[in-house]
Design goal:
The structure holds two protein chains of two kinds.
Chain A (H helix, E strand, L loop, with lengths): L11 E3 L18 H26 L13 H8 L7 E3 L5 H6 L4 H8 L25 H14 L5 E6 L6 H13 L3 E7 L2 E2 L2 E2 L12 H5 L2 E6 L3 H16 L5 E6 L18 H8 L3 H11 L5 H24 L6 H5 L7 H12 L3
Parallel strand pairs in A: 1-7, 2-3, 3-4, 4-8, 7-8
Antiparallel strand pairs in A: 5-6
Helix pairs in contact in A: 1-2, 1-10, 1-11, 2-8, 4-11, 5-6
Chain B lengths: L1 E3 L1 H15 L3 E5 L15 H5 L4 E3 L4 H14 L2 E5 L10 H8 L2 H4 L9 E6 L14 H5 L5 E3 L4 H13 L4 E6 L8 E3 L12 E4 L4 E5 L2 H9 L5 E5 L2 E3 L3 H11 L2 E8 L4 H13 L8 E5 L7 H7 L3 H12 L2
Parallel strand pairs in B: 2-3, 2-4, 4-5, 5-7, 6-7, 10-11, 10-13, 13-14
Antiparallel strand pairs in B: 1-8, 6-12, 9-11
Helix pairs in contact in B: 1-7, 3-4, 8-12, 9-10
Classes of the chains: A alpha/beta, B alpha/beta.
Bound molecules: thiamine diphosphate.
Chain lengths: 356, 320
């Protein structure tokens, strides 16, 4: 009888920008100024959008909304490394991804206002609709990646989800398939440490979520999710690997949900205030600002200009959203199937003209 | 007697049954510390501990599957699924195993579990939070399907469900959670599964409804002389109560918020046709939602049957 070690593994954590905004240049070369500015502008837009969504919800002008406060670096840092033909499968807390990719802002508001016309994805964007059923979109991303590989399209497919999603069977089945078939897909988990009231310890007994990838036969890495440069670096590497036939990667962005789960939740019931405060200090936007200040990339004028521009964009979008005429009853019927069934056709007549 | 809303009535039923029977164990997402996203399980973990009120990972299939194993082992698990739309991910467990273990083991094992879940429209929530697909579950032999229509029926029916030897799907109409207050006895009581309740007596028409549509029917019918039947259990359903009423009135209108095609109203209409057609004076009408995907908030009011729809159907059968 013998016992031998067949495999051992390391799980890496990548962080390059500290809380004071100092960049560890031994790990990455400083990103070029234009990229830094774009990251900053997208993060500010995400923050302003989020602030406005919360206040519109409180005024009763928007429905239930999930805030992304604190998760801007994870979203912007990864989405900014995507290219136009790439495909994205978001969960429901990815406003920052939508905005970075140029999704029409009024439509994003429209969707959260309870009008599904907001999810009519523009034809030039390959982004799937918001997925409310947690984790169930992961196999779809894998399927799109399988199709891209079949067609020999050198693209990457990205699925975004939270730590809670990693408890679902769909997560396991999707990642397993991606590993077996070596597909060009990148799984980006925003571990914001809470799935409504359940902390990450209530989702998994594993020390990291990144290590789950090992069981599926591909690389997993944990990055500081509040460090936009670390996220960007890891995402870009994973995307390149996928595009060039290297197969899947799993990226765990370790971050924190600073808001309530949604506007229908009260995090005070299950979460300690001091924990939240400890994370507020690690605000990803402040951290980027500190770096930019050190690099002379942030003047008061530029900062005000970026914020004003974001506010203007959001103001315009809210106006456009509210100017949309309400959806017509026909909308109920138009998109259930490609063609109305005979009964639907009758029902449509009834709701629009009264009974025959 | 206390005036309770449905959330409080369900909470009371759970609490009393857990006190009475230590085999009753609650599990689900956010049911412990948070007391459930609708606060239905509020205070239970403080009272009974984290081993009996279990906050689970986000895994509907695991929640349902482990509840099956617990039940087969001799416990009486109550699994909360956060919204009916999220039970779809556990269908394999619920249908292929929960519903069949008694049959497959020739009675050696049974699955006395309850799956509780909010269902139905009228709360302007995100997608999959307002599903009304009770008919799927009625089509699966081996599962009982129970839908209370208010606080009083919720408490009595849930107590019965918790004592039932078979899997019970207990659908809680979300729109009613806090809409109605009723006198609910503090003492324990049961309402038998499989029995409908006649909530209003009349001679001209039989109206059958369940869940949140009952409230809408009662608000809509004015002074029509109607037998209003609150079905309460859909599987097995109380065909005799419906047939007895139809024999008296000769007319039937079925109201449900699920879409029309293949909805449970079809089963009732067919039963009336098979066993009561000679007593009918008018066609049986169904008031239901159109055959479309449940919309988001902006079109929700166009989806749900309204008072006007209910009145129109009654007027129509009364013309005969
Ligand atoms: C399958 C499913 N079960 C339950 C829910 C209700 N729910 C919505 S979000 C959520 C927590 C999600 O946590 P996580 O995946 O970590 O994402 P986060 O909210 O933290 O972004 C739950 C339980 C759902 N939407 N889908």
């Amino acid at each position: 009888m013998s016992e031998e070690v067949l495999a051992t593994f390391d799980v890496k954590h990548l962080s390059v920008l500290d809380v004071e905004g100092n960049l560890d240049r031994t790990q990455i070369a400083p990103p070029d100024d234009a990229l830094v500015r774009r990251m900053y502008e997208c993060m500010v837009l995400s923050r302003v959008f989020d602030e406005r969504a919360l206040s519109l919800q409180r005024e009763g002008r928007l429905g239930t909304y999930p805030s992304i406060l604190g998760q801007e670096a994870a979203q912007v840092g990864s989405a900014i490394a995507l290219e136009q033909p790439d495909w994205v499968f978001p969960a429901f807390r990815e406003s920052g991804v939508h905005l970075t990719l140029g999704y029409p802002v009024d439509q994003l508001f429209q969707y959260w206002g309870g009008d599904e016309r907001g999810m009519r994805i523009p034809d030039n964007m390959n982004i799937f609709p918001v997925c409310v059923a947690v984790g169930t979109h992961i196999p779809h991303a894998v399927g799109a990646a399988l199709a891209a590989k079949y067609r020999k399209d050198p693209i990457v497919v990205v699925a975004y989800f939270g730590d809670g999603a990693t408890s679902k069977g769909d997560f396991h089945e999707g990642l397993n398939m991606a590993g077996v078939l070596q597909l060009p897909v990148v799984f980006i988990c925003q571990n914001n440490q809470w799935a409504i009231s359940i902390p990450v310890k209530g989702q998994t007994a594993a020390a990291t979520i990144a290590q789950k990838a090992i069981g599926y036969g591909f690389d997993g890495i944990q990055v500081d999710g509040n460090d936009v440069f670390a996220v960007h670096h890891a995402a870009q590497r994973a995307f390149e690997k996928a595009r060039s036939g290297g197969g899947p990667t799993f990226i765990e962005c370790l971050t924190y949900r600073l808001s309530d789960h949604t506007t229908a939740d009260d995090a005070g019931r299950y979460r300690r205030a001091d924990e939240v405060e400890a994370w507020r200090v690690k605000d990803p936007l402040l951290r980027l600002e500190r770096y930019m200040a050190k690099e002379d990339l942030l003047t008061d004028e530029y900062r005000a200009e970026v914020r004003n521009r974001a506010v203007q964009t959001v103001d315009d979008a809210v106006r456009v959203m509210e100017e949309h005429p309400p959806p017509a009853v026909e909308d109920l019927f138009t998109h259930t199937l490609a063609q109305l069934t005979p009964r639907q056709a009758r029902q449509l007549k009834e709701v629009t003209h009264g009974p025959a | 007697m206390a005036q309770l809303n449905m959330v409080q009535a369900i909470n009371l039923a759970l609490r009393q049954e857990m006190e009475r029977d230590d085999r009753v164990v609650v599990l689900g997402e956010d049911v412990g510390v948070d007391g459930g996203v609708f606060r239905v399980t509020e205070g239970l973990q403080e009272r009974f501990g984290a081993e009996r009120v279990i906050d689970t990972p986000l895994s509907e299939s695991a929640i349902t599957g482990t509840a099956i194993g617990m039940a087969a082992y001799g416990l009486r698990p109550v699994a909360e699924i956060q919204f009916l739309g999220f039970l779809y991910g556990a269908m394999e467990q619920f249908f292929s195993h929960g519903a069949r273990i008694r049959a497959r083991s020739r009675g050696r094992f049974n699955v006395p579990m309850v799956v509780r879940t909010p269902y139905g429209a009228g709360i302007k929530a995100p997608e999959l939070h307002e599903e009304s697909t009770e008919a799927f579950f009625c089509h699966m032999p081996g599962i009982k399907v129970v839908i209370p229509s208010g606080p009083y029926t919720a408490k009595g029916l849930l107590t019965s469900a918790l004592r039932d030897p078979d899997p019970v799907l207990f659908l809680e109409p979300t729109r009613l959670y806090r809409l109605i207050r009723e006198e609910v006895p503090e003492d324990e009581y049961t309402l038998p599964l499989g029995q409908a309740r006649t909530v209003r007596q009349g001679n001209d028409v039989t109206i059958v409804a369940w869940g949140s549509m009952l409230e809408r029917v009662l608000k809509s019918i004015g002074d029509v002389s109607a037998d209003v039947i609150d079905l309460l259990t859909l599987n097995p359903f109380d065909a005799e109560a419906i047939l007895a009423s139809v024999r008296k009135t000769g007319r039937a209108v079925i109201v449900h918020e699920a879409l029309k095609t293949g909805g449970f109203g079809a089963e009732i209409a067919a039963t009336i046709a098979e066993e009561g057609i000679l007593h009918l004076r008018a066609p049986v009408l169904r008031v239901a939602a159109p055959d479309v995907t449940m919309p988001l908030a902006k079109l929700e009011d166009s989806y749900l049957p309204t008072a006007a729809h209910i009145k129109k159907a009654i007027d129509e059968v009364m013309r005969y």
